[in-house]
Amino acid sequence: MINAQIGMLIKGEYTFTATSEARGSRELGVARSPNLIVNSGLNRLGGSGVVMNTCLVGSGSTTPAATDTALAVPVASTTTIVGGTGGTTTYVAGSPDYVQMITTYRFAEGVAAGNLSEVGVGWGTGSALFSRALILDGGGSPTTLTILSDETLDVTYTIRVYPPTTDVTGSITLDGVSYGYTIRPCNVSTSGTGSYYWDLSYIFSSSSINSMRIGYRSYTYAAGATIGARTALPSGTSTLTDITVTTLTYVPGEFKCRSTMKFELANGNAAGGISAIAFGFGRFSNTYNGCAFQIVFDAPVPKDATKTLRLTFDLTWANAA
After folding, report:
1. pTM of the model
2. What counts of helices (H) and strands (E) characterise the chain?
3. Count of CB atoms within 10 A of residue 30's CB?
4. In a 10 Å sphere around its CB, with 0-12 CB exposed, 13-18 middle and 19+ buried, how is residue 139 labelled?
5. Which DSSP symbol is given to 136?
6. Are 239 and 219 in contact (CB under 8 A)?
7. pLDDT tens digits, one per residue of 123-133
């Protein structure tokens, strides 16, 4: 049995556009407003239910705090989503690199009229807040937006996830033999179907309903496979394999998912053993994942119809600086 901890960092920011039939659209002269993902939002990732199908605006001015569960002075909310990348994840190269998903929420004409100074997203009104931010001016100081009674307001929220940049290494002892391993993100520049990849819609989508956990399938790689770059999968011949997954009940405040994959007697068998595995975590369904990783062993791990193999991983999440 192996127990390895891997993690990801999350951040987000808001932008605003007001539109009227008489004057057209006006980009509001404010800075991108960085958010704080509050504890209730971080806990939501470990539990079940939608994460961010609602946008909220308010007139409060208190500094966002991790313990916030609602806006300070709510003014209006909306569940109307009109744009962004439509749940599509895009990759941004850099140091560090990251993946992002953009969602635009619309407040109908007059709904958000007034002076606004705070914004958030979540899964409803009341104590259902994922993130909160003060609205900032071009210099990064808190400011107030005045939305007129004949204007619609579009709020665009960009959520970014930073895959870990450092490999996790360790060893596992099986039948008295020690096997070294390396864990690294994989396919961070890829989203879609057909392999293990990063797709934030399966973590933050308005339709996500499950707790964070490993998906019920993985790719196993036969003897001779080597570790891939973060933007790739391991080398070698792969087989899509069903696995049995057990996930511990989430403990609020831990911001961690502990999930175990088990290769039963009939699964994952490979002549010469298993050299690598690609797997993913997500909140959507049995086979889709929002973040993907690879584990590669320094020597093939024996696996045939007489043996089971159990691997346990802790996935953690936190606000990025």
Report:
1. 0.92
2. 2, 24
3. 17
4. exposed
5. B
6. yes
7. 988 889 999 99
